[in-house]
Amino acid sequence: MPRGRRGGRVSALEGCREEEAPPAADAVPSVLWASGQQPESAAELILLRGIFEIRRDSCDVVLSERALRWQPIQPERPTGFSDRPKSLKIVLNPQSHKKEATQIYYEKVEPLLKIAGIKTDVTVTEYEGHAMSLLKECELQGFDGVVCVGGDGSASEVAHALLLSAQKNAGVETDSLLTPVRAQLPLGVIPAGSTNVLAHSLHGISHVVTATLHIIMGHIQPVDVCTFSTTGKFLRFGFSAMFGFGGRALALAEKHRWMSPNQRMDFAVIKALAKLKPEECEISFLPFNDPQDLEERRAQGSLKSDCNDQWQMIQGQFLNVSIMAIPCLCSMAPRGLAPNTRLNNGSMALIISRNTSRPEFIKHLKRYASVKNQVQ
Ligand SMILES: Nc1ncnc2c1ncn2[C@@H]1O[C@H](COP(=O)(O)OP(=O)(O)OP(=O)(O)O)[C@@H](O)[C@H]1O
């Protein structure tokens, strides 16, 4: 009988296959090999155990008193992992943030995609709306995903374009849209903009290499979107919107793109605060305070049918109204502007600031920077 390294006897168990010893297992020569079998009894003494490569598979090899067994190691596939992408359409906004998206892509992202064997086709956008018209015309069949290298403006433009094509392809009428059809391709987001709320909310951090690795690994994270309409006419898909103070500040920041990103944001906030004024609003909403209740209703399919009799309406003067389908994490709000919203729970946060004094409103804004959650 052959002997293992430590001199234990090795013999075949009933049912073991006898095979030729593969070369990588030469640490334990001339033994009987069995695959896919567990030790016969817990009392069986294990003499040696290790990971060996056997015919290109990593195997858990166990040498016991009575036999040598091995089993290919199956890597765990956590839920949400899909196949890794092989080919990606890259949409890059060279104007994002301090115009460094091109450098970020070619220095940090592309080398990793190359190592991962992913083919890429890059379009550098030339004007606002370019991503939209490109994705309308571009044949995306050969790609496994679209990656946006830029900020939130670019990412939401690409998301809108992908969703719009999906509705068109499915023959869904957007003006009466309640539940959109999913985009046909996943969207990867490389944060290269000024705020990067989407990438930050998706990955928990606004970090280029982290985002790239998520894309390479094929991590798919479903994300809620809102549809924005005016008097029954569909406008666009998006992840968040702000009216009043927030809307004015963002519009001002957009108008002053010639300033540096930090300067224009500070300038916009200060100017919007100086002109702080309430808006008369009427807001209808379907309240869900308990996310579990929401999940259960979605699972039961009772969400839509329940809607009509549960809508609530509030009316009054408000300084700011925000709706956010994602938590909206950013450096200014480390827990997010909407900390109680999840990426994919079918709900969105509606955060309303009633009319109050400017110092009180500033206090409320400052509390977003704290990790203590002000929004219950
Ligand atoms: N070549 C271009 N010239 C001018 N604008 C462009 C160009 N390409 C894209 N855009 C537009 O620039 C806008 C803002 O870009 P983006 O969101 O990437 O950067 P950002 O504003 O710095 O970041 P954030 O939105 O995170 O603050 C987008 O709405 C996009 O449509």
Helix/strand layout:
Elements lengths: L33 E2 L10 E9 L2 E8 L3 E5 L14 E6 L8 H15 L3 E6 L5 H8 L7 E6 L1 H18 L17 E5 L5 H7 L4 H9 L9 E5 L2 E6 L1 E5 H11 L5 H14 L4 E7 L5 H10 L2 H4 L5 E13 L24 E6 L3 H9 L10
Parallel strand pairs: 1-4, 5-6, 5-7, 7-8
Antiparallel strand pairs: 2-3, 3-4, 9-10, 11-13, 12-13, 13-14
Helix pairs in contact: 1-5, 2-3, 6-7
The structure holds adenosine-5'-triphosphate (ATP).
Q: Can you walk through the features of this model?
A:
The chain folds into 3 domains: 1-75, no CATH class; 87-229, 3-Layer(aba) Sandwich (Rossmann fold); 239-293 and 310-369, Tumour Suppressor Smad4. The protein has 10 helices and 14 strands. The protein has helices spanning 101-115, 130-137, 152-169, 197-203, 208-216, 245-255, 261-274, 291-300, 303-306, 358-366; strands at residues 34-35, 46-54, 57-64, 68-72, 87-92, 119-124, 145-150, 187-191, 226-230, 233-238, 240-244, 279-285, 312-324, 349-354. The protein has a 4-stranded mixed sheet, with no helix packed on it. Helix 2 runs parallel beside helix 3 and helix 6 (245-255) packs across helix 7 (261-274). It is globular. Residues 1-37 have low confidence and may be disordered. Bound molecules: adenosine-5'-triphosphate. Adenosine-5'-triphosphate binds next to helix 3.
